[in-house]
Design brief:
336 residues, alpha/beta, Rossmann fold, 2 domains, 9-stranded mixed β-sheet, 9 helices
Length: 336
């Protein structure tokens, strides 16, 4: 698909909070896309959201939107257990798909989705928006320069507290609920991106709460990477709000106090080298807009995707291993 001054015509599958609060405003801010339609099982709701964002079309079913020739790409923020079905159906209908994280419930599902994208000749991407913020390329430059020495450990945390919201979809294990899927995926994804490698083994301890559907409400783990470098992380939906990443080398440390959700503001991070700390303030950038523009560039054939469906399959392999380790209380090897 060539650009020829066209914009990518987006369809929004469902009226989730992340769509209304972040992604749809980002499409409006981008120069590469336009919201053409909104679909939900409730036509009144989809009309309301479509009107809110000036979208010309509202659909009372997902099937109707898939059949519409005016939709080029779909954003899918549905509950995790519905990602595979609707992404594959969309791709088989010739639509490009940006799917919320985690892309699926396990690695085999993610591979099915990646294979479907190849077969249909369309783009598929997992919506980890944070990776598209320009500060991450700068951080990788600092590490590659040797300024903080040899990497020794990465430490990450992402927690919040919704334990009283017993109707939340994150508490449905059959829907892909739990803290590892919801927020633990962020420090794990970041470590894989920073190191440019896949883990060798994982060991995770978790608090599975019967009061909360039996999902992992809290988890802490060790992710072993090649070269004797490790990620230590904790994540949870039953703790005080915390969000951080620390990259520790032999000569220095990079610390990100707002590691995963910073956008236009609060994206600064610290670099400490032999006791001297400086703060770097990156250019203001909405990471959702950057993500959408990168996706559109791939659709228009201007450049390859920065993060491929195969990367998402590898990420799901790690998340799946983390849950296995937590449930079976053992170290899980990821070596072939």
């Amino acid at each position: 698909m060539k650009r020829e001054d066209k914009q990518l015509r987006w369809g929004i599958m469902g009226c989730a909070g992340i769509a209304i609060g972040a992604v749809m405003p980002a499409i409006q801010q981008s120069t590469t896309g336009v919201i053409t339609g909104v679909a939900s099982r409730n036509l009144e709701k989809s009309r309301q959201v479509a009107d809110q964002f000036g979208a010309p079309k509202a659909f009372g079913s997902y099937e109707e939107m898939l059949a519409d020739a005016d939709i080029d790409a779909l954003y899918i923020p549905l509950p995790n257990h519905l990602h595979k079905e609707w992404a594959i159906r969309a791709m088989q209908a010739g639509k490009h798909v940006l799917c919320e994280k985690p892309i699926a419930l396990n690695a085999p599902e993610a591979k099915e989705m990646a294979d479907a994208a190849d077969e249909a000749g369309v783009q598929l991407a997992e919506a980890f928006m944070y990776r598209h913020h320009p500060r991450w390329e700068r951080i990788r430059e600092i590490i590659a320069s040797g300024e903080i020495g040899e990497l020794r450990v990465i430490r990450g945390a992402f927690t919040f507290n919704n334990a009283e919201d017993l109707t939340n979809i994150r508490l449905r294990p059959e829907w892909g609920g739990g803290s590892i899927y919801d927020v633990g995926c962020y420090p794990i994804s970041a470590a894989r991106y920073i190191l440019g490698q896949e883990p060798e083994a994982v060991t995770v301890q978790a608090k599975f709460s019967l009061k909360h559907g039996g999902v992992d409400m809290m988890a802490a783990g060790l992710i072993e990477f090649p070269g004797e470098v490790a990620l230590t992380f904790d994540c949870g939906m039953w703790a005080e709000n915390r969000e951080l990443l620390e990259i520790v080398g032999t000569e220095g440390v990079i610390d990100l106090p707002r590691a995963f959700t910073a956008g236009m503001e609060k994206a600064a991070y610290g670099v400490t080298v032999r006791g001297e700390r400086r703060e770097e303030i990156p250019e203001a950038m909405n990471p959702y807009v950057a993500e959408l523009d990168d996706f559109a560039a791939a659709v228009f054939g201007e450049r390859p995707q920065r993060f491929t469906p195969q990367d998402a399959v590898k990420g799901m392999t790690v998340l799946e291993a983390c849950l296995t380790s937590a449930r079976e209380k053992r170290r899980v090897s990821l070596q072939a």
